[in-house]
Every structure is written in C-alpha cells, then in structure tokens.
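Feature request, filed as a ticket because there's no other form

It would be nice if the structure record came with a short human-readable summary line next to the tokens. Right now we just get the raw output. Example of a typical job, pasted below so the devs can see what we mean:
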Amino acid sequence: GPLPELGHPKEAAAGSMSGTSVHCRPPVGPPLLAEAPSRQRRHTLPASEFRCLTPEDATSVFEIEREAFISVSGTCPLDLDEIRHFLTLCPELSLGWFQEGRLVAFIIGSLWDEDRLTQESLALHRPGGHTAHLHVLAVHRTCRQQGKGPVLLWHYLRHLGGQRAVRRAALMCEDPLVPFYRRCGFQPVGPCAVTVGPLAFTELHCSLRGQAALRRNSGC
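Raw output as currently delivered:
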C-alpha cells in the first residue's frame, strides 16, 4: 500500500546595461591570487538531508499527502491547517527527508498523554505526554517502491529516542499495513478506538527504551 516538492530557489536575474561604456584604470598593486578550489564557497544543496519540518514546509507536505491518500481512501489524515498547526506547536516531532532540497518523504507527530489513542488524539498535542503519536507517513509518488518509508521511519525513531520526554511511539493503520510496521519494531495492541468514516484501524506501539528499539533490523 502507498505510504505515505519544496519551492525552487529563485534565480538571480542577469541584466545588461546599454549606452556609453566607461573604462576605468585598474588599481596599482600586486596581482590577485585565485582562490584555491578547496576554499571556494560552494552553493550546492546537500544530496540527502533529514531535518525537522517547519510551517513553511506545510504546502509541500500537504501536496505529497493529498496525492498519496486521496486516491486510496478519499481523505487525508491531516488537512493543510492541521499540518501548519502541528508544525507550529511541535516541529521537533516531525521529520522530513530532503534530496537536493526537494521534500521526498515525511512524518508528522504530536505528543499524547493516554495509554491508547482516541478520537481526540487526531487533532491535539499534549505537551505533558510521553507518547509520540505518528499522524502520517507519506512518500512522494516518484520515490515509492524504493524503500524510503522504512529508512525514514528508522531515522524518525532514532530522532525520538534522543528526546527524554518521549518513551514510546504509537500509530494506527489499516490491517494490510500491519506487517510493514511490525517489521519496523511496532507491535499491535488491538483495534483502535479511532474511526474515520467506514475505515477501522489497528493500533500499534513501539517502545523507545533501550537500543533495541532504535536499531535498524533486516526487515526495516
């Protein structure tokens, strides 16, 4: 099942001036030495980068999410306003994968303070909670079937493991996706109390205590 572009940098306009040209005598002095290639300033974007998302990334996030979910279920886990809401309140619980400056996959989460997910957990961030609720994981359509979902999820769990307040991760998914998340370290805890229209979900948890939950295993 599908799991679930940044704006392009503006190019400086090069202009030319017409009219009488003015020639100036160059200043007298020692010749300038060319800067060594190793010291020249580079303006290239990193080939691959994982970072927390910001509200400025919301539109790119929503475009990927909408394409990934609308065609399958007819609805999105988060609308654009909800994406901005979570990226404003708890950007540290998000993670985006950028390749040459372009968003190719992302996860958005928030904190929850109860043992199990409820309908309220879909829209709330509880700062005192110890559970990271993963609202959505999505991969750009041109990057699917490349193993990016498991790689991003592994990086995300490592990211959460570095936050003392977060003790576990929780998510809900439809039954066909349960094996995927189990390979990534999540364990089913039963049917989820949350429903979205006719859709029913299984709730899964992943403990973040100890290194075992943060290791990348052969299946994920």
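Something like this underneath would help us a lot:
The longest strand covers residues 102-112.
Residues 58-73 form the longest helix (16 residues).
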